[in-house]
């Protein structure tokens, strides 16, 4: 096992009726930015619950954060934060709203002249951020319990991420019941996103970390067990609660301790969202199986372990097939042609962009622009 530092300062408040607990977590004298998305919280009662829990605090409301939050919209919210002297951000929504809250919070304390630098530096320029609380309405990203954020610049079709120890939420409320209003497509996306998060931290090479492997496999197994149940019955509390907790644990710094990580699927996938507008998880289901095939020789040992322990198959290729079949069984397409995207065109666009940025991905840092393009051609 490699050396590691484990740090996760986020308090998780989990379960039915837990939104009321924010009243004891948000400072009584705070000026709160109440940040949300396109309006789903107004239809499912979450907006009202949050308003009541905030009581007499000064509230500055900002709605309209898009899925794959736009940099441009975050800057509008930032202006309001400065004008109204906001000192606490409460993000209420899915990963996009939470990520926007992290970016706005870091930008509010940023000393430089151009907040885009927060993203181009991957967060290294972040030295402080406004405190952030979260009410999560969509299990998927793990953003409720990590320091990462992904923001898209609409004007240039760029989607960049940053990570900072200052950007962990101070608390996150996870009430599975408020996710019952999710359409099945979002639930499907969430299951696949969480599954792929585990894989980015697992599907590399053996690293003498048996406990990490077992943690990872237990999250995968749970997603395989409860995923189809929570999709078939969108208001079943027990399966939704297990799915929600799995998604948090999939990306909260726990299973990455002491092990190599890949993340090439995510980085290539972000480009597909930026260029073609696919939902985040839709890109992952296309790219990950082909990354595995492309890197079969390097990932063989872990693919065989995963195949044997999870799917009871012997070969690495059998494990890949089982994974694709699982995604498809959730109703998730796994090829570019399913979205009428030309693989050669996508490959060339991503190759050019990665070349410009000097990108090298994967646990060995050997997936450069040409390799990413080759993987995308395999995604046809
Ligand atoms: O905007 P509203 O009206 O709230 O609707 C949202 C949105 O349209 C809707 N929704 C959310 N909760 C709902 C609901 N609809 C009905 N009932 C509810 N309870 O769902 C739609 C999608 O929401 P979004 O927040 O975009 O989804 P998700 O949580 O999947 O977040 C995706 C974003 O997170 C980034 C992705 O790249 C993408 O930008 N990621 C963030 C990560 C992180 N911070 O650690 C890691 C991930 O790998 C990922 O990259
Ligand atoms: Zn993801």
Descriptors:
380 residues, alpha/beta, two-stranded antiparallel sheet, 14 helices, 8 strands, 11% strand, binds 5,6-dihydroxy-NADP, binds zinc ion
Summarize the structure.
By secondary structure, this protein is an alpha/beta fold. Helix content is 48%, strand content 11%.
Q: How is this fold's topology laid out?
A:
Blueprint: E1 11-14, E2 31-36, H1 40-43, H2 46-54, E3 58-62, H3 71-83, E4 88-93, H4 95-108, H5 116-120, E5 132-136, E6 148-153, E7 158-163, E8 171-174, H6 184-200, H7 210-232, H8 237-250, H9 264-276, H10 280-294, H11 296-311, H12 316-329, H13 343-357, H14 369-378
Parallel strand pairs: 1-8, 2-3, 2-4, 4-5, 5-8
Antiparallel strand pairs: 6-7
Helix pairs in contact: 3-4, 6-7, 6-8, 6-10, 7-8, 9-10, 10-11, 10-12, 10-14, 11-12, 13-14
Bound molecules: 5,6-dihydroxy-NADP and zinc ion (ZN).
5,6-dihydroxy-NADP binds next to α1, α4, β6 and α6.
Question: How would you describe this structure to a colleague?
Answer:
- It is built from 14 helices and eight strands.
- The chain is an alpha/beta fold and 380 residues long.
- The mean pLDDT is 98.
- Helix 3 crosses helix 4 (95-108), helix 9 packs across helix 10 (280-294) and helix 10 packs across helix 11.
- A six-stranded parallel sheet has the order 1-8-5-4-2-3, sandwiched between helices. Strands 6-7 form a two-stranded antiparallel sheet.
- A hairpin with a 4-residue loop joins strand 6 and strand 7.
- The radius of gyration is 20 Å and the shape is globular.
- The structure holds 5,6-dihydroxy-NADP (NZQ) and zinc ion.
- The site of zinc ion has 6 residues, from helix 6.
- Residues 37-41, 44, 67-68, 93-97, 99, 137-138, 140-143, 146, 148-150, 178-179, 181-182, 186, 189, 193, 251, 266, 280 line the site of 5,6-dihydroxy-NADP (NZQ).
């Amino acid at each position: 096992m490699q050396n590691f530092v484990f740090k996760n300062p986020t308090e998780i408040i989990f379960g039915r009726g837990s939104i009321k607990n924010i009243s004891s977590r948000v400072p009584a004298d705070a000026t709160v930015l109440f940040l949300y998305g396109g309006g789903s919280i107004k239809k499912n009662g979450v907006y009202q619950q949050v308003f009541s829990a905030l009581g007499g605090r000064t509230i500055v409301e900002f709605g309209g954060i898009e899925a794959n939050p736009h940099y441009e919209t975050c800057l509008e919210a930032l202006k309001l934060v400065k004008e109204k002297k906001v000192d606490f951000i409460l993000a209420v929504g899915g990963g996009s709203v939470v990520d926007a809250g992290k970016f706005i919070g870091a930008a509010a304390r940023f000393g430089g002249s151009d907040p885009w630098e927060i993203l181009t530096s991957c967060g290294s320029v972040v030295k402080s951020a406004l405190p952030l609380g979260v009410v999560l309405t969509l299990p998927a990203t793990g953003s409720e319990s990590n320091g990462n954020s992904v923001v898209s610049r609409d004007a240039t079709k760029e989607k960049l991420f940053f990570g900072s120890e200052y950007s962990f939420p101070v608390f996150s409320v996870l009430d599975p019941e408020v996710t019952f209003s999710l359409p099945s497509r979002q639930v499907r996306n969430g299951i696949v996103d969480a599954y792929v998060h585990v894989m980015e931290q697992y599907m590399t090479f053996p690293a003498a970390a048996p406990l990490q492997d077992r943690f990872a496999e237990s999250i995968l197994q749970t997603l395989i067990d409860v995923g189809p149940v929570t999709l078939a019955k969108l208001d079943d509390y027990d399966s939704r609660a297990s799915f929600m907790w799995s998604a948090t644990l999939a990306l909260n710094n726990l299973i990455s301790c002491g092990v190599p990580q890949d993340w090439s699927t995510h980085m290539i996938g972000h480009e597909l969202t930026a260029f073609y507008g696919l939902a985040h998880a839709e890109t992952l289901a296309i790219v990950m199986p082909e990354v595995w095939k492309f890197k079969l020789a390097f990932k063989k040992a872990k693919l065989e372990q995963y195949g044997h322990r999870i799917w009871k198959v012997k070969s690495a290729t059998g494990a890949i097939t089982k994974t694709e079949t699982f995604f498809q069984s959730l109703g998730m397409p796994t090829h570019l042609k399913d979205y009428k995207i030309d693989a050669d065109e996508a490959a060339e666009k991503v190759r050019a962009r990665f070349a410009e940025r000097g990108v090298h991905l994967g646990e060995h840092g050997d997936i450069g622009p040409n390799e990413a393009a080759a993987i995308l051609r395999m995604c046809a």
